[in-house]
Amino acid sequence: MLHKFLSTLAVGLALMIGSVHGHSWIACTDYLEENGADWNPDLCRAFPRDGHRFVPKTGLFGRDTGYDYHPNENTPCKTMPSATAYNKEHPMAVYYPGQKIILAHPTKNHVADVRCTNKFIPDNLNKIYRSGKLDTPQPTKDPKLSEFRSNQVFDLGISPFGNDISDERTRTYPKTGFQNAPKFCDNPDKALATYTMILPAMSPGRYTFMWAWGFNSVQDLYSTCWEVDIVASKAARDQVLRDREPSTSDPDGEGTVTPAIPVTPGRRSTVAANAVDGMWNTWGSWQTCSRPCGGGIQRRIRRCNNPQPRNNGAPCVGSRVETRACNTQECSPTSMTDIDLTAKWNTGANGQINLQTPRPSGDWRVVVRFPCSAERINFWNAIEDGRIPSETRQLGEYWLIQPEPWMQDKAYIGFSAEFPSCIGELEESNIVTEIRLL
What we know:
- It is a single chain.
- The protein is mainly β.
- Helices cover 8% and strands 26% of the residues.
């Protein structure tokens, strides 16, 4: 792993920071909430290529599935185009020139916000590129990376970071670039972030779009690809969406969605003689619970298609989404008693927390409790979970997560710390470690 050193901080301290391994991907290619704070799968109208495999609508948002990808000249996209890249629940995008388009992606800890990370998390390039107009509805290969990059659709800007940026600016939203995530500190690994772009004039037809994100530099690229049908107008786009039965509203303003015009049951104006009012179909099955324990949410949906409204008929009245609590049982900790102090001196110690094999499935954190709070502590092969309450940390408890794949390959989490107030109590038998499911 390459390293670089950042120094000369405003407070005069020297800070060493590694060239961080980044990863993320586009999870939704037509989201219905601008500057949104919480992921809602029912607001996603279109998905990237092979989204049903890597970013399934019913899955946990931000879960690592291997969808992050470093493009190269001959293979710019994670997967090749295919007839099975989209399905009914994960449809292809359809845009029209002038449309405001929201793209959604998980933060994966890559936001500079001094409340839970630091101001040095980089963001160096965010752009949307496209292929030429495809000469077949079902392409079998992608153009080269350089061909994509010669056809820029939109520059999404970059987020502010670095020593010259004020602390206040890092915690102010919305932001340009990758780091536009108002609730980042609630869940740094899996928070929702969004981009906003206006589609420029384009000739109708089918294209392949590519999102390119430069993390450490403009050369350190990640990509996600998806096919798009460009149509001539909003009316043409809305007809496609009506056939699929999602909302035809577009994002409007700061975190809002343009609502449908309300219709009072039994009262309509200018009703066609052959108008058909919408009626709800039966509820679908409950989706997978969002958490294995500790209280999750299940959703189910119904569709206004039994029949769907036609010829100025009234829309269905009521909600198309129903939720309920699930897996409310407390998460049981998995004990981890294998900890080694590898060095100890009169004010502190080095050590390692040996991780179990195999690791638990699902999302989890390591909790370590020392006899007292450290005056200074550094961890490696893991990072501190920013969701820990400050009062918990002051009691000597630390929450650790391994968001990067290279971290998850390590057999232990290392630490080096100063404990001048309780060095006499710092023994392996007095340090408690455990894995807790999230």
